[in-house]
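Convert to structure. Protein one:
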Amino acid sequence: MTDRPIRLPNADHPISIAPASGRVAVRVGEVVIADSAAALTLCEARYPPVHYIPRGDVDMAQLEPSAHHTYCPYKGEASYFSVPLLGEKAANAVWSYEAPHDAMKAIEGYLAFYADRFSIEVV
C-alpha cells in the first residue's frame, strides 16, 4: 500500500470552514434532497465555496452508496453517493469525508453536493 500525503492548509492553500450564512436547501426539481440550518461552508484556495450538510438533514433514501472514492491530501478519502433522480448525472453526485484528516474534522459525516447537478439555495 502506498502512503498518501497529508497536507495542512496554509497561506498557499487556505481552507476555512464556517457556519453557512443561512438555511441551505438542495433540490432536484421540486424534490428536496437536503434542508439544513446547520450547514457548513468550506472555502478552499481558489475553488468555489462548498456547502456541507449534516447527514441528519439529508433525505438519505434518495442516495445510493457508490463504490467510487477519491483522495484529497488536505481532507482525506471521500466516499460518494449517486442520486437516481438526476438521471444521467446521477453517478457520484454527492460526497462525504467519513474520517477526514484532523484539520478538517468539522466536516466529518457531512455531505456535499455538486453545484452543477443540483439546485442549491441559501436563504
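Protein two, convert as well:
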Amino acid sequence: MALNRERPHLLVLPEDDATRSIANGFIDATTGQMQVLNPVRGWPNVLHQFEVDHVIQLRKYRHRHLVLLIDFDDEYPNRLTYFQSAIPKDVEDRVYVLRHLPG
C-alpha cells in the first residue's frame, strides 16, 4: 500500500537486514501508514542519507515521521549523541533514533 504523504505516516530507515527485520515486525500493527525502507548498510550511511535526503523530505511533508534504526555496539559509544546533534531543530520532534543492541 502506498503512503499518503499528506497524512501522518512513518518511514523507517534501517541500517541493515537485521534491523529491517525488527521494523517489519511492526508493520502488521499499523494502519498501513508505515513503510520500511531498504537498508543502507552501516550507520554512517544512515546518517548520510538522513542528512542528504530525508531532512529535505521532512521539511516538505509536515506529517512525516522518521525512525533511524541503527545498531549500537562498543566501537562508537557516543553514537547516539552524534546522531542527535545531526538532527535539525525544526524537525527534531519527528525524528526518532532507535538503537538495536546486537547479540
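Helices lie at 17-27, 43-60, 79-86. The longest helix spans residues 43-60.
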